[in-house]
Amino acid sequence: MPEPVVTALLAPSRLSLKLLRALMWSLVYLGALMAAAVYSCIALTHVLCRPRRGCLGPPRCAVPACLNDPSLGEHDFLTLKSSGLRLHYVSAGRGNGPLMLFLHGFPENWFSWQYQLREFQNRFHVVAVDLRGYWPSDAPRSIDCYTTDLLMTDIQDVITGLGYSKCILVGHDWGGLLAWNFSIYYPAFVERLVVACAAPMSVYQDYSLHHISQLFRSNYMFLFQLPWLPEKLLSMSDFQILKDVFTNRKSGIPQLSPCKLEAFIYHLTQPGGLTGPMNYYRTLFWNVPLEPQELSTRTLLLWGEKDSYLESGLVDAISSRFVPGRLEAHILPASGHWIPQNHYEEMHRYMWAFLQDLLP
Fold first, then answer.
1. What is the pLDDT of the chain when averaged over all its residues?
2. Could you confirm whether 211 is annotated as catalytic?
3. Cα–Cα–Cα angle for 352, 355, 358, rounded to 5 degrees
4. How does pLDDT run across 181-226, given as a tens digit for each residue?
């Protein structure tokens, strides 16, 4: 068929897709403006209620002591083959078994896996990385440096750079989303997958279109589409909005010590420390709409029934995409979003049972 004819036949479809994307971005930025208004009020309220703190929080100078706990492992940097970026990681148990690689979420860092590093280092080589953009790992300024493809390549380079050809991949929140994607596009590198409180992006997309309430739970991701403003709002009143994420009575981490709270926000308070994490969200809609994907990697999925950010209905939506017999899913009735921190013992029991056949 002549090329002009093909072009003419495809023109209506291409026009429809452009109109759909234009409508999507209009709605995204409308949501961003609404979220900006709400979060600006919250941030200003914090400033007015705590005037002695001033407006913007200063960078932390002293490293929280718990970040240097030797029982968690040794600190090191790995230079990635593809990009040349240096990623910080904490490692323990080399030579004790297969590689178990941990990917953190937002607003977190490698310390999110403190309990898992201690639990599994006697039978696995456990490694928790600070993802690109999270200080002290390298943090490119350009939004283009945070596309899904580049983040997937980072994970591949970490696995091979550590001397392995595959791993047990464990992710939470944003790290869980990356783990899902990596298991889809690089299945040969993933021996087992463990995900806590995260859905594949294609599943999240379809579920949210039918459950608008999920978009309200994730309202912050619209705010993060805007340039510079989210960084300012999150840093106001000594980073109080970030502190509230961890200490909120209903949705935070119960009995979080001041030292551990500082361990979570220390990296984000460094100059430019919030821009890299924000850039993950700024590329989130670049590939929307996404095609449905079949999931086949053997996976353990843990979900908090009281998760304030993600609805439990996503678990059934994820299950419907799986090859039968490849997914083991558990909804923890008493847990919220922070399963690796506040329900780590239950998480460990499920993980040991799931990985039993891999142990020598």
1. 94
2. no
3. 130
4. 999 999 999 999 999 999 999 999 999 999 999 999 999 999 999 9
- Tokens (6 digits) for 172: 């939470």
Catalytic status, residue 172: no
Q: Is the pLDDT reported for residue 47 higher than 70?
A: yes
Which of 172, 337, 344, 350 is catalytic? The answer is 337
Residue 8 has pLDDT above 70, yes or no: no
What SS3 string covers the chain? CCHHHHHHHHHHHHHHHHHHHHHHHHHHHHHHHHHHHHHHHHHHHHHHHCHHHCCECCCCCCCCHHHHCHHHCEEEEEECCCCCCEEEEEEECCCCCCEEEEECCCCCCHHHHHHHHHHHCCCCEEEEECCCCCCCCCCCCCHHHHCHHHHHHHHHHHHHHCCCCCEEEEEECHHHHHHHHHHHHCHHHEEEEEEECCCCHHHHHHHHHHCHHHHHHCCHHHHCCCCCHHHHHHHHHHHHHHHHHHHCCCCCCCCCCHHHHHHHHCHHHCCCCCHHHHHHHHCCCCCCCCCCCCECCCEEEEEECCCCCCCCHHHHHHHCCECCCCEEEEEECCCCCCHHHHCHHHHHHHHHHHHHHHCC
Q: What is the pTM of this model?
A: 0.94
Is 210 an annotated catalytic residue?
no
- Please pick, among 138, 154, 157, 173, the residue that the annotation labels catalytic: 173
Question: Which one of the listed residues 39, 146, 266, 281 is annotated catalytic?
Answer: 281
- CA within 13 Å, CB half, 66: 18
In this predicted structure, the answer to whether residue 2 has a pLDDT above a threshold of 90 is no
